[in-house]
Amino acid sequence: DGGITQSPKYLFRKEGQNVTLSCEQNLNHDAMYWYRQDPGQGLRLIYYSQIVNDFQKGDIAEGYSVSREKKESFPLTVTSAQKNPTAFYLCASAQPRDSKTSGNTIYFGEGSWLTVV
Amino acid sequence: ELKVEQNPLFLSMQEGKNYTIYCNYSTTSDRLYWYRQDPGKSLESLFVLLSNGAVKQEGRLMASLDTKARLSTLHITAAVHDLSATYFCAAYSGGGADGLTFGKGTHLIIQP
């Protein structure tokens, strides 16, 4: 089945440690996104990528890094510079909004819970 | 900068009643999305509204868009317990940014 797979579902990070969240999609979408959700809050955009080997910062990129070496993969690294990383992280994908073949829908993965211990 | 505001943020209602969730956005946006989220789960796409006057319906939920007023509504008809969830609206950011700007969500509890 087509979809977005995030792993791990639960992750614990020690102080000063970098951790990487995986996001893989088999929808053949060009655009991929990472969002952060804090309890009782909406989602905030961390990074996005519209094409392989290119990505842009979102609203809260500090303390995070990404790569887009393959169309289907968009991993997010939470670095030690991110002082409050405990949150629910959601990866999403879509065709770019100016795409003639865009279906307009943005699909989300199941999410990853990150907790600092 | 695009801002999206939802109200109410919390709503408790009885089964069988009707209610509306409002979503205001601050600058021009060419798409408005509604999502549902169950506790601890990801987001499920409900509606995508693309033009002024757009109305979409799925079961007991109906969404509409007024781009001139920068307002979208999600109307719930004859609510049932299974509709209990958090509902988010989101709009596309303007300028060079991509991705969605989300409201804070409306936590909806429907009591039998």
Overall description:
- Chain A has 117 residues and is mainly beta.
- Chain A is 0% helix and 48% strand.
- Chain A is built from no helices and 11 strands.
- In chain A, strands 2, 4, 5, 6, 9, 10 and 11 form a 7-stranded mixed beta sheet that branches. In chain A, strands 1-3-8-7 form a 4-stranded antiparallel beta sheet, with no helix packed on it.
- Residues 99-103 of chain A have low confidence and may be disordered.
- With 112 residues, chain B is mainly β.
- Chain B has strands at 4-7, 10-14, 19-25, 32-37, 43-49, 55-58, 61-66, 71-76, 85-92, 100-102, 106-111.
- In chain B, strands 2, 4, 5, 9, 10 and 11 form a 6-stranded mixed beta sheet that branches. In chain B, strands 1-3-8-7-6 form a 5-stranded antiparallel beta sheet, with no helix packed on it.
- The radius of gyration of chain B is 14 Å and the shape is globular.
- Chain B starts with a strand and ends with a strand.
- The A-B interface holds A 31, 33, 35, 40-45, 48, 50, 56, 58, 90, 96-97, 104-111 and B 4, 30-31, 33, 35, 41-43, 45, 48, 50, 88, 90, 92, 97-105, 107.
Write the layout of secondary structure elements.
The complex is a heterodimer of chains A (about 120) and B (about 110).
Chain A: E1 4-7, E2 10-13, E3 19-25, E4 31-37, E5 43-51, E6 54-57, E7 64-66, E8 76-78, E9 87-94, E10 107-108, E11 112-116
Parallel strand pairs in A: 2-11
Antiparallel strand pairs in A: 1-3, 3-8, 4-5, 4-9, 5-6, 7-8, 9-10, 9-11
Chain B: E1 4-7, E2 10-14, E3 19-25, E4 32-37, E5 43-49, E6 55-58, E7 61-66, E8 71-76, E9 85-92, E10 100-102, E11 106-111
Parallel strand pairs in B: 2-11
Antiparallel strand pairs in B: 1-3, 3-8, 4-5, 4-9, 6-7, 7-8, 9-10, 9-11
